[in-house]
Amino acid sequence: MIDLASLSRGFRKSYLDHAAITSQLRAWATAYPAFVSLREIGRTRENREMWMLVIGANPEDGRPGVWIDGNMHAAEVAGSSVALAIAEAVISIHIAQSGGPASGLGLPHHMERAVQGALFYVVPRISPDGAEAVLTTGRYVRSVPRDERTNGGASRWIAADLDGDGRMLLMRKQDPTGDFVEHPSVPGLMVPRTLDDVGPFYKLWPEGRIEHFDGDQIPTPYFLGDNYPDLNRNFPFRWTSEPDQAGAGSYPGSEPESRAVIEAASRLPNLYAWLNLHTFGGCFIRPPGDVPDGKMQPFDLAVYRQVGAWAEEITTYPMVSGYAEFLYEPDKPLYGALSEWAYEHRATLSYVCELWDIFARLGMKRPKRFVDYYTSLTREDLAKLARWDAEHNQGRIFQPWKRIRHEQLGEVEVGGLDRRVGLYNPPYEELDTICQAQTKLMLRVAAMLPRLVISRVEVAPIRENVTRVSVTVENHGYLPTYGMKHGLTRPFNEGAYADISCEGCTLEEPLRTRLSVGHLEGWGKGLEAGSQAIFHQASGGSETSHTLRFTALGRGWATVRVGSSRMGFVERRIGIGGGI
Fold first, then answer.
1. Helix H segments across 351-456?
2. CATH of region 452-576, choose from 3.90.1230.10, 1.20.1250.20, 3.90.1150.10, 2.60.40.10
């Protein structure tokens, strides 16, 4: 068997472009065709493939699955590396379970078997066009490097490489009304102006040109000005159009990238867990993002508490409520987000990870709302960032200013922040450590999936040529077969059923070839669940199992197949009347 490590294209040490990611995925699919396959789920506007790696033998058979995606926001390329690292770990488990070298992951054998039993769907890069633009030019792109809006008459900033260095960074111009000033002890570091500053003062803009410039009025830069829309506002959960939701797109799924994810995931009723990888911040964000926890299903909240406890223990990142701690404006939900759609509409245990805790490197005190980290950096924090960049990041963030002549604005300077490595994404030197921690957590989450088992079969002769059969089905997984309780009533979230077929023998009730099983609870209850209280420790009744009974006539074989499209199927062949 081919050595797995020899196939690596270096995603643990660098950020791969589209060609390298494609090469990595194809290498795995070619080397391990028994349990790795590669699917194209869509094409971008620039004709790049959107790849989904499927890990698991015979994926067409269906069984509980895990979805992992990254890099839907163009500059957040660390998500692709982490997604690939998780895929590599799952492949190593399949290799070990197939008689190859041990995975080296340190998981107990029963957990590796649980992970092997799940299907993994890995989309390492949702926005190939956006990531390519960021990696090759450094320009700011929220999601995609295009703008197809029909209202193109207003003036706006268009990113451009003005000094020919291959990057599109920032641009500053001295102005007495400027709202920025150089840090008094860190030359070149731009900080917000205060009353005590004496100047010189600067205006800061993106490196580029003004489209439809009237020679007088300079437009205010807008983060989606030349790169619309935001893919993470383009999903069908509570989608709301502009201006109520910035970056929403023309309609839910209007973009080829988001539409490909929607279509692919909607054809996979077996998804139970979903990891949506972003940067930066160092936290996990869980649903719901539109209502407070008091309106959440108690079971779902308890499960998220458990995953959150593991997350903080393994990665040091806390898990926070999307509604309580990650709204840019309090009580104003973000609409059209992928992880919300995955939880609300697809009934998955879904959450976002904001990789890379730069705030910890600066020793910042956590604010009451996690999202306020991003706007609460003081001058001293910015100076710490500059020192950290010089000492631990090889000076990748802060770039010197270079004076040039701008065709519209006259004398300006370009340079400032290159946010790609060290700010938006971890330094290359820290990437592998982050990959390892995230992999360890995700494998634990994957081990929570439901697992149908035919645990007992009893065959009892009643009289000559008449046999009574009892088949007990159990869910040996942590999660219930319906996944998150919020999505229990979704049409695709069907309960299990049993199909009975006979060879030689016949059923006493020949029309009852399909029997209802329904959903089965899992053994897990989450954290701080009521049944775990010291004053009333109690288990549920037979909610984790169901017994089927039928009567067969004659001699032969009966096959019982139990499951659904949501949870997959298990079956047992049973001898009737002594078999044949």
1. 358-361, 379-392, 428-446
2. 2.60.40.10
Is the CB of residue 334 less than 8 Å from the CB of residue 341?
no
- The verdict on whether omega for the bond into residue 200 sits within 30 degrees of 0, i.e. cis, is yes
**Other CB atoms within 10 Å distance of the CB of residue 573:** 13
Looking at residues 470-477, what average pLDDT do you find? 97
Beta bridge partners of 477: none
Query: What does the pLDDT average to over 392-408?
Result: 97
How many of the other CB atoms lie within 10 Å of CB of 236? 17
Report pLDDT for 102.
87
Confirm if 193 and 201 have CB atoms less than 8 A apart: yes
Gap between the Cα atoms of 419 and 434, Å rounded: 19
Structure tokens at 63: 């069984």
Which residues in 82-216 belong to E strands, given as ranges? 119-123, 156-159, 170-174, 180-182, 190-192, 201-206, 208-211
Residue 317 is classified by DSSP as P
What's the rounded mean pLDDT across residues 165-185? 96
494: number of Cβ within 10 Å: 16
- Extended beta strands in 49-176, E state: 49-55, 65-70, 119-123, 156-159, 170-174
CB atoms within 10 A of CB 376: 14
Tokens 């590396």 -> residue = 81
Structure tokens at 55: 């890990």
Q: Are 19 and 27 in contact (CB under 8 A)?
A: no
